Amino acid sequence: MAVNADSIFEHRDPIRKPGWRKALPWIVAIVAIGVIVGFIGWKYSNTGHSTATPLTNQPANDVSKNPQTVKLPPGATRVARRFIETADEVQYAPMKIDYSYPKEALIEVALLPKKGAKVRGLLFQMNLVKRSGKWLVNSWTPKSSPPVPSGSENSGGGG
Description:
Elements: H1 5-8, H2 19-44, H3 74-85, E1 90-92, E2 95-101, E3 104-113, E4 122-131, E5 134-142
Antiparallel strand pairs: 1-3, 2-3, 3-4, 4-5
C-alpha cells in the first residue's frame, strides 16, 4: 500500500470532544482522592481510648473525715512554749487551739510585746506535727496583715 507523501502533510481538523469528556479524567481523579481521604479520616480519626471509670454499686471510700479531736498533749504544749520563748521582747503570748488531733495541731498565738518595745503585737498560726514520737513546729505563719502607713498613696487620702 502506497502512502501518498502529500497526504502526510495535509491539514486535518483536530477531533473535537465535548467539554464534559475533557473534564471527565479530572473529575474521576478528584472523586477518587476524596474517597481515599475520607476513608483514611474515618479509619484513623479516633485513636484515643476511653478513660472513663466504670460505674459500680460500691459506695465511695470517704477519706475526707478528720481524725478524732483530742486534748493538746503536754509534749506539744512544751514545744510550742519553747518556740515562743525564743521571740524577742514578748511580755505575754496567749494561745488558742484551733484543732488538736493525735498527730497534728494548729494553735493561734498572739505575741504581745513588752511596754516600750519597738515592735507591735501580731497574731500567728503555729502548726505542730508528731514525727517519730516527737512534736515539732511544722510552720509559723503570721495571720494578720501588715498595716498600711497613713501617709502612703494607698491610704485613700487626696493630694
